[in-house]
Amino acid sequence: MPEVVEAKVVFIYSNPEKLMRSLTSVKRLSLCLSASMLQHNIGFYQLVHLELCGCRPKWWDLLTWMLESSPKLQVLKLNKCEERCYRFIKPIEGCWRQPSSVPKCLLLHLNTFEWKYYNRRQEEKKLVAYILENTRHLKIAAFTAWKLKELWKLKELVSLPRASSSCQLLFD
Questions:
Q1: pTM for this model (two decimals)
Q2: Domains: count for the chain
Q3: Is 1 part of a structural domain of the chain?
Q4: What is the tens place of the pLDDT at every residue in 89-124?
């Protein structure tokens, strides 16, 4: 489907690879699926905007794979795909594995990073630290607390090192 520009993909069944292969030319993509559902040899060379839902098992592995597979990515949003989903957002279980080398999109293109319902767990902090430390052209990193009463706790992110001197941290 070389004409498709934008796609929203939510998978419940176990083999989405055929559809994903047909979406390699999209520029905007919204995903809600498990990384275990995909083979890791699909490239998204036109993708500039990615929204990834954090309510599926192993969503963090999908994030790592998408960063590695999307060299032109400019906007990354981690959120929920449905209003009811926020209750089911899974923390990163086990250890988040950073890419073996810094993805090209972080070095050259990513300028916006948003994380809605960020809940400050240790592995999530590691992921945020990695993004901030390695994204050279990041202009905005915006975070929304999982619980509104914990918004003030997001301020700890201010002390994390950033590769981009022009990066603004926003808290909502």
A1: 0.86
A2: 1
A3: no
A4: 555 556 778 888 999 999 999 999 999 888 778 888
